[in-house]
Amino acid sequence: MTRPLLQISGLSVRFGGLTAVDRLDLTVEAGAIHGLIGPNGAGKTTAFNLIAGAVRRSAGEIRLDGAPVEGLPPYARVRRGLARTFQNIRLFGEMTALENILAGMHTRLKGSLFEILLRPDKTRRVERDAVTEARALLDFVGLAAVARRRAGELSYGDQRRVEIARALAAAPKLLLLDEPAAGMNPAETRALSELLQRVKARGVTVLLVEHDMGLVMRLCDKITVLNFGRKIAEGAPREIRADRQVIEAYLGAESAHALASP
Question: What pTM was computed for the model?
């Protein structure tokens, strides 16, 4: 039986008079790819920001692997096993792909000023091991050949892959992906789908925000749908595809009625 890795109860956030996320309950099972979808403005990215610690909640509870994370800053949540990518790519463009991956390891690498000064052999060994691991991650995402190229020179699809590799460098239990297929062509989207299946096989749980419904329906084990900050549906892809509330949220009530009519 699977166990919940992420448990959210009654999560809400208000910005002035606007409730962006409204009493959200969400459970993500360990080892799953879980989709979080909804129309523009539904509150998906805000929910991600709440989970990652970039936005403070107004109410509710977030538990990661059974432990509450409220009050923890983002870097502490990373140490607990959480990593994310962003809707807009946030790589260090002037750094190489390899250096970007190494930057993703910063919360895991140990070393004090004392060790750097008095135990340089240990420091060099840690650095060599980190570079070896970073190269392995670039190979995992299919980019071993571009390790020494500046990230800003890579194609859009390759930059997305570097960003995923950098997130994996934190050795997460839970990976939050915010619209990873945005801007990709069909071939890049297919390659992304294959990559995320390998991420799942690696033992990493994925919570995915995505507008490409074909990708979501093929990839996700379970889907949660938000509209105006509230959860309106949840279930397997085949259930979500046929849910009237979901169809209305995306297409409007008239279109939903037309689709349902014989």
Answer: 0.87
